[in-house]
Specification:
359 residues, alpha+beta, 3-stranded parallel beta sheet, 39% helix
């Protein structure tokens, strides 16, 4: 009996995830994926509809399926009332989670309490709103305040030229406006645990999707949002764990635990159509990188770099900080040639320790 039951569960999960991704020609794709008839697929879709897990509209091949909201909750707290993040978690979220795997539950607790604590301690807001939305394929957690805005506050604290500089610095990790009480690690690790992580503030959006490149964009859909708005989304089927994420970024070569590695998406280092050419741009990339043992530069969507930019990172900075490993990831052939060119000018004693790689 386990075989047919397991196959049915696999089919149901596949259909749910495909609907969540808005996959075209759902029934045709499912029949090829599982080698079963259209009648079998339609029968499973009907079962999911009867159970309230999916909704359908239209007829025959034009039929569309969506995932209805199963549970949701929105609550606003006055910060002056000594709000505590663990209490809010227990009172507003835990009962809504239902039967979740321990790894997903732990990720939700970590991200929610970290982001709520940030709002309480840093936002300078009068109130904070928390939200929860769940479908059969997705759990979404929200934290929103009406304070000064996270990017504006970082810009002010670190005397940065532009709030976009704040977005870039925040993406590296170990950034906090109150080092006495915070490490600056919460946002970085949270963003890597969830499938999708968004921060909207000051007309800007910092987005991490499935551990891919960080992106920056003007939030033209809804306009500037006062304060800070955070959305965290994860699939209830996720196999990711908090331990995996911590070990990936915080485990040193000798086995000690510490936030030792960061990913730096270079798309955030340029504004508009400008290219990465100058030493000043390189220095902005390298700012605070001395806090890490390994710096992974993500060159996705970077078509070329200037000689001065490459030289500042892969020769000058390398000579000044030989203990820091700098890795170039997803560099195309043109970018890699420029990196190799500046590395060829390293002192002979440093040859073989160029601290970079391409993939």
């Amino acid at each position: 009996m386990d075989g047919p039951i397991l196959e049915t569960k696999m089919l149901a999960r596949w259909l749910i995830e495909a609907i969540n991704k808005n996959e075209p020609r759902l029934v045709d794709r499912a029949t090829k994926q599982f080698g079963v008839s259209r009648q079998t697929i339609n029968r499973e879709l009907k079962r999911l509809m009867v159970g309230g897990l999916i909704e359908g509209s239209g007829n025959t091949r034009a039929r569309k399926y969506t995932l209805p909201v199963i549970r949701q909750n929105w609550v606003t707290y006055e910060i002056a009332d000594n709000v505590e993040e663990d209490v809010v978690w227990r009172h507003e979220i835990v009962a809504l989670l239902g039967e979740l795997s321990n790894n997903v539950r732990e990720i939700c607790q970590f991200g929610f309490t970290e982001m709520l604590n940030n709002a309480i301690d840093h936002s300078e807001s009068r109130e904070v709103t928390v939200g929860f939305i769940q479908t059969v394929a997705s759990i979404e957690l929200y934290v929103r305040d009406d304070g000064v805005g996270i990017f504006n506050k970082i810009q002010r604290q670190y005397e940065l030229e532009d709030p976009r500089h704040a977005v870039f610095e925040l993406s590296k990790g170990k950034l906090t406006t109150n080092p006495d009480t915070h490490t600056g690690e919460g946002i970085f690790f949270t963003s890597r645990m969830f499938d999708s992580f968004h921060i909207h503030s000051s007309g800007l959006a910092l987005i991490c999707e499935n551990d891919q490149d960080w992106l920056i964009e003007v939030d033209e859909r809804v306009g500037p949002i006062p304060g800070t708005w955070i959305r965290m989304q994860i699939s209830p089927f996720s196999e990711r764990t908090t331990k995996y994420v911590f070990d990936r970024f915080a485990m040193t070569e000798d086995g000690d635990f510490g936030f030792s590695k960061t990913h730096v998406p270079l798309t955030l280092a340029r504004y508009g159509a400008e290219q990465l050419l100058s030493r000043s741009q390189a220095r902005r990339v390298l700012a605070r990188c001395d806090k890490f043992r390994e710096v992974i530069l993500i060159f996705t969507n970077i078509e070329s770099i200037g000689q001065a930019f490459a030289d500042e990172i892969f020769r000058v900075y390398h000579n000044q900080h030989p203990e820091i490993v700098i890795v170039a990831l997803f560099a195309n052939a043109e970018v890699w040639r420029m990196i190799q060119h500046v590395q060829s000018m390293l002192p002979e004693q440093n040859k073989g320790h160029e601290n970079s790689a391409a993939c």
